[in-house]
Specification:
Layout: H1 7-26, H2 32-79, H3 85-97, H4 100-127
Helix pairs in contact: 1-2, 2-3, 2-4
Length: 134
Amino acid sequence: MVSRDITERDRAEKENFRLAIQLQRTGDSGNLGLMAATIANELGPLLDAVRDKVRFAADAGRQLQPLLRASKEMLAAATSNKLTPELLARATAADRATDVDYLTAEVPNALAECHANIERIVEILAGIQVDVPA
């Protein structure tokens, strides 16, 4: 598992966001483009990471399907005393084709990272809400 310290990046992102909010509060419409660019720079990488992690989790689910089907067939056959060498061979092949240890470790990590990024997106969006004149 690779880990990295993102403290400095997080600090810079928060500072950029704080500056964007300051620009917004000045009411200077000339700075609207800069504010939008700052917000896009904040949200873009977070959304990219969420997309990539969700894609990874979906791929992991597809990789696990043959193994889960084979396990279900094997369980049904074993409980009815109809387990055959062919069924056992299919289940063994499905098991060998799937890196279960990797997937069971990494899918929860990917989902946790998605959750953290979504929470950060929510914070950013909550910070830019303004009162709209009636």
